[in-house]
């Protein structure tokens, strides 16, 4: 089974959309994405199609998507999400890029500004009151959009626009998601070893690694440590105010 470049780009976009639904706070749309018969069928098709190409062969194992055994409702999934990721910011597996890459708040601002530049270039911005720019689901949704625009451009015969969209995806993986997705996934597999997010973590790690291989991208992996682990208190969860008052006990730099 092979597809045209446009169909392949649609399949890549489909994977990003599914993973974004896995990792954002569960809402009605995410629940439909994870449990709907049609959405699961299109995910299986996309994994099978991409799995025919050498860089993406590992996706053949992920056509069934996230395992939700024992989770029969949106409420149950929300409860599990809270247990895994916490109600503030988990220090075990925070789903935020800058919790791994920037120990100082001013560095975090620079990273967030760079992310905003990517989003702005594609005419989108994160709705206020939802999530931070560096949240995993936001980054996956951005790549879903960029891959979808690439597919539409290829379908319309606009090779130049398709190239712009693809270049943006490669840069984004090299500069952002490709750097921390593997470390996050490793931590999440360990933290939710018996739960549904283990399968989602494996799928994330395999797909982002495949995207990097397919595009000859070489993102520099972040260190396997989170900002929360440097805090002096022993709490499992913390928030920004904890960090701002850490004083001399805070880390010097990453």
TrEMBL record:
PANTHER family (alphabetical): CHAPERONE PROTEIN YCDY (PTHR34227), DIMETHYL SULFOXIDE REDUCTASE CHAPERONE-RELATED (PTHR34227:SF1)
Entry-linked Pfam families: Nitrate_red_del (PF02613)
InterPro entries (alphabetical): DMSO/NO3_reduct_chaperone (IPR020945), TorD-like_sf (IPR036411), TorD/DmsD_chaperones (IPR050289)
Assigned keywords, A-Z: Chaperone
Name listed for the protein in its UniProt record: Molecular chaperone TorD family protein
Coiled coil: none
Organism expressing this protein natively: Tectimicrobiota bacterium
